[in-house]
Design brief:
The chain is α/β, with parallel strands linked by helices. It contains 13 helices and 19 strands. It holds the Pfam family Peripla_BP_6.
Amino acid sequence: MERTNYTRRRMLAGLGAAGVAGLAGCSGETNDGDGTATATATEGGGATVNASASGTVSIGVLQPVSGDLSYYGQQALWGFYQGLNYKADDEFTPPAETGTYTATVGDVDYELIVRDTQLSADTAQTLATDLVSSEDVDMLFGCTSSASANRVITTVSKQSGVPTMIGPAASADVTSNAETCAPNVFRASENTAMDARSGGQYVAENSDVSRVYLFGADYSFGRAVVNNYRSVLEANGVEIVGQRFVPQGYSEWEGLLDNAESAGAEGIVAGFTVSTLPQLFTTFLNGGYDFTVFGGFATQITTNIVGQTLQRVLGEPLTADALAEANFGPFTTRYHWNQYDNEINNAFVDSYTSAYGVVPDLFSSGTFTASSAIVQAVEAGGSTEGADIQSELRGMVVADTPKGADGYEFQTYNNQARSAMTIADVVPNDEENWGAAIKPSEPVATVDMSNTTIPGDSDEMGCDL
């Protein structure tokens, strides 16, 4: 398709759309003598702006924008676009399609070269190689599939040294495995370990559950969920009475749930995606089991299918009382539109919904923060060079995020951003721009960012930058 330019300018001296949040942590402002303003940041975060930044940052973007799971790529792109959109006065809402789109923030053009990975690791590798060798991009951003992300990191990012912002690929291994961890590889997006560690802490500290049976899908996602739940639960005195991994799409749940009940489980953890959850939940809801199910809220696609399952078993319309009596949740969420009440998120939800006709979803905050961090790095260093952006990203506290000002912080030992996570009940949906019968409730608990990620000294952390 033809190249499309979305040109936007703002007055840097006024700090424009960054607003109050963009100034968080600033200790002062000095005039450089030529009328430009430079804001310096105090320790612990906030925006550092250097008005001398000018030029172009070329970013190769790798997301699936076709096929059955194109929605994953769409929401990843929409979040990334909105992070740029938040930084300037004019609108930047290009389509989630392949092509080249340019957003201008201050005197810097952010040129996004969007390519379709088709959710294939082979395709992602080929495209990333071309973006680095032929397009000479300054950075890479993507992928949705963890397999694709790992392939791009090991075959392109580490080989070329090009700074890479992974997202929303969520496997904990991306930033905890020595083979994929690297000084030039960052991830703002939340990961499966954050899901599990947050959920495990909540179960241990805020429920009467003392005996848990762990179920997970037999691949990296499910194993990360189970391993991190086990780590947190055992550390908090909760007994693990059993553990079982099953293939994706597994449907013979009655015997396994009977085993969990026989083992004395008061709760089970379900580390699965949409291919397995409906069968599991149908068996659980029809079986009259006494234990509670814990896990994580997913994207609109999965939540819609889970909601249909609940409607078939519990009846329509779903009621809050029926859901509460089903021993279903609460669940962890990386991000949903109604979990954070702050000026940045409110503006983000309004802009995103107006542009795309849906509320922001699970991946949206992480990819918003990815582009927000890149802009902050350019402004902080006054440079559009990839190496300088990489240097500024290291250890950065990201000023403008949907989880609030200074809501994400890149850990220096593995370049994974930590952020708060919330716990919510399952309630009937009343949001017209959310296509599912259920949604997360208002948060019942928030887990501070200091407790959501794998610690640097953990046996599960193989990365030490």
